[in-house]
């Protein structure tokens, strides 16, 4: 999914904060929710230096910085994934990640379907 490009393939250990909260392999990491949520500052610190995004300690975080980080993240997914996989260990309780079991942020509306059969002599 373009807005949830990372899925959980497996967990490093058998227990952890994500598993304790019901997250399972196949779920998506909601990057936007993580960056806009309570993990904003630690993620800015962790991802500083990727794709030209810089965060300096003590800088007041505003909407422009948040949007800049989001743009940087989605433009540099491989570097972000590597940084997350390398630096998240040991940050339980410091960085709160948001996962979802669907790539859609809203409840999906199922559309009705119709099956139409035409005889060989009929036209649509």
What would you note in describing this structure?
This protein has 124 residues and is mostly helical. Helices cover 34% and strands 5% of the residues. It has 5 helices and 3 strands. The chain has a 3-stranded antiparallel beta sheet with strand order 1-2-3, with no helix packed on it. The longest helix is centred in the middle third of the chain and has 13 residues. The mean pLDDT is 85.
Largest sheet, spatial ordering of strands = 1-2-3
Question: Regions with pLDDT < 50 over 5+ consecutive residues?
Answer: none
According to DSSP, the number of beta strands is: 3
Kindly report the average pLDDT value: 85
Radius of gyration from CA coordinates? 20 Å
Order of helices and strands: EHEHHHHE
Biggest β-sheet, characterized?
3 strands, antiparallel
Principal-axis shape equals elongated
Distance between the termini: 35 Å
Give the fraction of residues assigned to helices.
25-40%
**Derived structural class:** mainly alpha
Strand content: under 5%
Instruction: Figure out the total of helices.
Output: 5
